[in-house]
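Thread: "does anyone have the structure for this chain?"

Original post by V.I.:
We have the sequence but no experimental structure in hand. Need at least a predicted one for the grant figures.
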Amino acid sequence: MEKNMNNIVRLFALGGLDEDGKNLYVVENNNDIFVLECGLRYPISGDTLGIEMIVPDMSYLVENKERIKGVFLTHGHDDVMGGLLYLLKQIPEVPIYTAPLTALMIDRKLKKEGIGKINLHRIRRNAKFKVGNTHIRTFGTMQSIADGFGMAIKTEKGYVVYSSEFIVDYDTRRPSFVFDITAITDIAKEGVLALLCESVAATREGNSTPYHRLVNILEPIFEEAKQRILITVFNQNLYRVIEIIELANKYNRKVFIYDEGLRNLMADMAKLGYYHIPAGLEITSAKFKNDDDNVVVILGGTGDSIFQKAHRIANKEDEIIELRHSDTVIVASPAVPGTERQEAAMENDLYKEADHVLTVDAKRSYSMHASIEDLKMMIYLMNPKYYVPVKGEYRQLIANANIALNMGYQADKIIVLANGQVAIFKDGVLERKYDSVKAGDVMVDGKDSLDAGGMVLKDRDILSTDGVIVLGVVMNHATKEIIGGPDVQSRGVIYLKDADYIMKEVGNILENTINTMVKEKKYDNLEARSIAREKIARYLAKETGKKPMILPAIVEINIKR
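Reply from O.Q.:
Generated one for you, tokens below.
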């Protein structure tokens, strides 16, 4: 850590660089820490056994919690706010700043987890305020969820600006989605030291608008469909949900929202005055009937839950929705990283049960991230001294860097970082030497976190590939005589019927190990199990080529005379 803290700004990421998700960026203005986002990413199917999510290693924040002035969550997507509960369990008092819709989403998550009141501050999308001694500005950005914003942190040598996700659409009339160019130009007039800009769609030509709109793709389907329409959509893509509801209203179809989380989100939108479902359009769960034809069923969900739900419906295992061959099924929820296998399996089963299955092509309907021309506009308007691509895989970071390069920025003014790598600015000038902080992955299994290199994941990997052998004996505690067993159980190791001799020999190894140690007066329960485990492992590797998990048990009991 620098001792002289005059006009020193440090920028780094604990997650979000060279990966899709798990975003967490840190801006240190002299001695004050500002955290931008606190997200998760989903594990790639089959690679992290039993892991539900991956969050950043936040040990740096825990160690420096007294210096944290605020955690800013720019919108309500899992990749930027899904790791918040994990942070709060370590730093319960940390101040959180976010817009009203995201705040309601956080409140609901806290209630579900049984977490009490936190230090939560609701801020407007276009606001000026101070946190500690630092001036902060927010500016509205248009993205797939309402209430999104970017932010600017004022330093002595200009603003550090974080774009968040954004596209530019001048046609939207919903204030909670509007992109505020006026605020951006105001910030630029005061000077921008560094611009941190998203990279997810940095390889995509042109502008994202108007290709982000789904209505042009869906309308012909709504016109032609004679029976019921089922459509999958991610809860957090509220822009797309509203498009579907408005189309249903136009074609005089009722709407049934099949997901409690999505119904809650739409209630939040109404509560805040952002959007109201047209009166009389929505069917409640109590009034929904499977034989109604003139209805649009919106299958909502998050992560891979939406694919699991559609999979249940396709397999006729769902309690509410019964899929019919006459249904038109639209998959408007493209697979997010880590869910590709589930999405493919879901589509496969849907095709078996419904005559009309259509998938929205990602090449025709863009995700609401900044494409090349959007990024150029942001760079042009902000005119930053330094440009920092963030939020994306390495190829996307480089593509984003090349955009700035092609706009005339010199290579020494473009900063491509790795997670944990620290860019240091002294008096507004980038230091040649980069610092580093601890960064990595933390695996979250249900409500518990597991170290990425810990024994739990290693054990799960062994179980999935080489199986397990459980064996045990019962001993007389006083005489050390074996009075029961050995009993050997194998799962996932040996499938051949004529391999009984192997299991018998495994039992013999444990028994002989105990008897030898007793005879030599060296018997110790723990050491006997350890020696037997090593001998059995060598024997099984030689006989079967496998290295299963071996769990020997020696139960010692007192026998009354």
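V.I.: this helps a lot. The longest strand covers residues 482-491.
O.Q.: and The mean pLDDT is 87.
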